[in-house]
Design goal:
mainly beta, about 260 residues
């Protein structure tokens, strides 16, 4: 990772001539700020990105919106992942929620009703996969009344706005009518993001987000690998200059 250094060093050459060496690039440890597009939150534990969408949509429209960004409605594989979600300060508008202290999002679970006696008995499943390997509590909070012929409700995660409640991990699981409109939480795999905030496909060359526009890497499993850095000569005939943060070997001369 090249770092600009315009200090000059002097050595004596043959015949007493002064030779000037310009140390232009000094090797530094590579540090990348990458893995998620702008607006997404990265969690290292699952190598995933998460984003809340405010536009109220029914469950099926929310599913399609997540798919269009190469993701799906969020499901959780461990308590640590859920705690990460609950601790985030999502950029949300208060008007999208019924109560200012509570926030509810569609997530990737459905509650399948198996018995309609005195109470609605059933079980949680991962939507579309039909898998019951979930760690949600067996009894949800039921939202809007459901029609008699409906046997599937859609999952909502409720978290809290106040920091003290949020950081204590307080939350609830709702089984809601799937045609109600709600904000929703999408999840996608981490990805390579270039210095101009473009998403990079697997196997392509790109310059990662960071401080070095002269770095070229290959995208592999959402990580920049096999990186090569170009070295830039300082601009000729210019004593003071500024490097372009987004373009390799491009300078602006600051001399009067």
């Amino acid at each position: 990772h090249g770092k600009e250094n315009v200090d000059s060093r002097h050595n004596r050459g043959r015949g007493g001539e002064t030779t000037r060496f310009h140390t232009v690039n000094v090797a530094q440890p590579v540090r990348f700020s990458r893995k998620c597009p702008t607006g997404w939150h990265h969690y290292e534990g699952t190598a995933s990105c998460y984003r809340v969408y405010l536009n109220g949509e029914n469950y099926w429209d929310a599913v399609q919106t997540c798919q269009r960004v190469n993701g799906s409605l969020a499901t959780f594989t461990a308590d640590q992942e859920l705690r990460f979600i609950l601790a985030q300060e999502w950029d949300l508008e208060e008007k999208t929620f019924v109560r200012k202290d509570q926030r509810r999002f569609w997530v990737g679970y459905q509650y399948v009703v198996t018995n309609r006696n005195h109470s609605l008995e059933g079980h949680w499943e991962v939507a579309y996969k039909g898998s019951s390997e979930v760690f949600l509590p067996p009894e949800p909070i039921f939202g809007s009344p459901m029609a008699e012929k409906e046997n599937v409700l859609c999952g909502q995660l409720q978290c809290f706005h106040f920091p003290t409640l949020r950081h204590h991990g307080l939350h609830s699981w709702y089984a809601e009518n799937c045609y109600e409109k709600s904000s929703f939480l999408c999840k996608r795999s981490q990805t390579c993001v270039d210095i101009k905030d473009n998403i990079v496909d697997e196997g392509y060359y790109f310059t990662p987000k960071g401080n070095d526009p002269c770095l070229s890497c290959t995208c592999h499993n959402g990580e920049p690998e096999m990186c090569v850095a170009a070295l830039c000569e300082r601009p000729q005939g210019c004593q003071q200059y500024r490097k372009d943060p987004k373009e390799c070997c491009k300078f602006t001369c600051l001399d009067p």
